Amino acid sequence: MDAEHMGADLAKVLLTEQEIQARLGELGQEIWADYHDKNVLLVGVLKGAVVVMADLMRALPGSAEMDWMAVSSYGSGTKSSGVVRILKDLDTDITDRHVLIVEDIIDSGLTLSWIRTNLLSRSPASVEICTLLRKPEAAKVEIDVRYVGFDIPTEFVVGYGLDFAEAYRNLRVVGVLAPHMYT
Ligand code: IMP
Ligand code: MG
């Protein structure tokens, strides 16, 4: 769906399709410069990373494997607690593999921090993180993110894989949800 299909539910477009594609093209080149000889395994976290993964992996100028994890955060309310349960684990044995986690957005970074620690316990050669979007809150936690698409303000965004109550993941742009939608 396009921004106009959301009518008044979208306050503004933050990133257009063209801006996202251009940035992913740059990241693809950067990542390949670092990983071309490392048989990198791209690991996506369901479901938000589906769209980023599809475009980022095609922006790589060479072949790369991918795998997926699904996790659920324990804890009350909408804030993630950092306590995580694995709903779907990797199919791949990552012993001695170079792993690049592909994420849609890092807010508190708690979930991702748990996932990285979990993957590091499996004796991989390395674990790095690539995220399309990062909010300022993420700067407060000790999480080293190697590749960042865009730093964005603390606003609730939807589209390009990101949802509000599972809606709008299929929006082509990244947009700010109108406040009347969640107040
Ligand atoms: P964290 O553990 O606080 O970093 O949680 C990150 C997760 O929260 C992301 O993977 C998203 O699923 C969700 N999230 C955080 N900010 C937004 C947003 O602005 N829009 C949609 N989902 C978000
Ligand atoms: Mg998510």
How would you explain this protein's 3D organization?
- With 183 residues, the chain is an alpha/beta fold.
- Helix content is 22%, strand content 30%.
- The chain contains three helices and nine strands, in the order E-H-E-H-E-E-E-H-E-E-E-E.
- The protein has helices at residues 17-35, 50-59, 110-120; strands spanning 10-15, 41-46, 65-73, 84-88, 98-106, 126-134, 147-151, 157-158, 174-177.
- Strands 4-3-2-5-6-7 form a six-stranded mixed beta sheet, sandwiched between helices. A three-stranded antiparallel beta sheet has the order 1-9-8.
- Helix 1 packs across helix 2.
- It is globular.
- The two termini are 24 Å apart.
- The relative contact order is 0.21.
- Bound molecules: inosinic acid and magnesium ion.
- Residues 48, 80, 104-112, 156-158, 162 line the site of inosinic acid.
Give the overall shape, derived from the CA principal axes.
Answer: globular
Question: β content, as a range?
Answer: 25-35%
Strand ordering within the main sheet: 4-3-2-5-6-7
CA(first)-CA(last) distance: 24 Å
Distinct ligand kinds: inosinic acid, magnesium ion
Rg calculated over all Cα atoms: 16 Å
Mean of residue pLDDT values? 93
Please give the number of β-strands: 9
Which series of helices and strands comes N to C? EHEHEEEHEEEE
Briefly note the structural class of the backbone. Answer: alpha/beta
Largest sheet: 6 strands, mixed
* Low-pLDDT stretches: none
Work out the oligomeric state of the chains in this entry.
Answer: single chain
